[in-house]
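Please fill in the sequence for the structure shown.

STRUCTURE ENCODING:
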């Protein structure tokens, strides 16, 4: 429990009070579909589709699609490699060219337990190929996430996380996300995810609701 308390304190320190722009005062949303498909004892197919808005159900911000293949090295370590495609509207209530991005990513996940709390450390590398207004860019980024889960009842689970993003550039800080919520198990294949998170950028910040469906399938049975 001391580690969880320390983690919470560090997350709070990431939040600074400052004058906010109009978009920062809005509560936006992420609508998510996350698929986890067991192909063999050690291999899983990962599928994601996210639709993101500057407001609860309006002012489109982004759609992102992810496909990955996960391999268990052992019970505590697994790795993932995959591909991402996204379209982003970087403006709010104004017109600007969309940002199109193709991305390759690689994950290393380290699992542990802090008493009754399940812990996942994730390190993710990404090679990002961006195109906006006929201009092409190649960017590289690394992110570290600490993800915690605690079972409340048989069908209810509390989760929290903190994830920091760093760019391979002179000004390396990209963003920091901190959030929490509930996973509600509907049956063995479906789980409902509801939560909130705060994102701090170098010059701005955003508040978001998370509403998602987690689908689990097992093709080994």
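FILLED IN BY: designer on duty
SEQUENCE:
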């Amino acid at each position: 429990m001391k580690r969880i308390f320390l983690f919470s304190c560090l997350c709070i320190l990431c939040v600074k009070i400052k004058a906010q722009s109009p978009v920062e005062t809005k509560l936006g949303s992420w609508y998510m579909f996350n698929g986890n498909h067991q192909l063999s004892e050690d291999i899983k197919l990962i599928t994601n589709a996210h639709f993101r808005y500057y407001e609860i159900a309006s002012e489109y911000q982004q759609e992102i699609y992810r496909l990955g293949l996960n391999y268990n090295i052992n019970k505590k370590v697994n790795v993932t490699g995959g591909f991402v495609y996204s379209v982003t509207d970087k403006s709010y209530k104004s017109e600007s060219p969309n940002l199109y991005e193709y991305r390759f990513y690689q994950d290393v996940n380290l699992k542990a337990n802090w008493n009754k709390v399940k812990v996942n450390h994730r390190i993710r590398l990404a090679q990002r190929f961006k195109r906006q207004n006929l201009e092409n860019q190649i960017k590289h980024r690394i992110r570290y996430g600490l993800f915690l889960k605690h079972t409340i009842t048989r069908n209810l689970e509390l989760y929290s996380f903190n994830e920091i993003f760093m760019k391979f550039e002179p000004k390396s800080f990209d963003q920091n996300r901190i959030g929490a919520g509930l996973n509600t198990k509907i049956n063995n294949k479906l789980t409902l995810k509801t939560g909130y998170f705060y994102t701090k950028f170098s010059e701005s910040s955003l508040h978001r609701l998370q509403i998602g469906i987690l689908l689990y399938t097992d093709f080994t049975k």
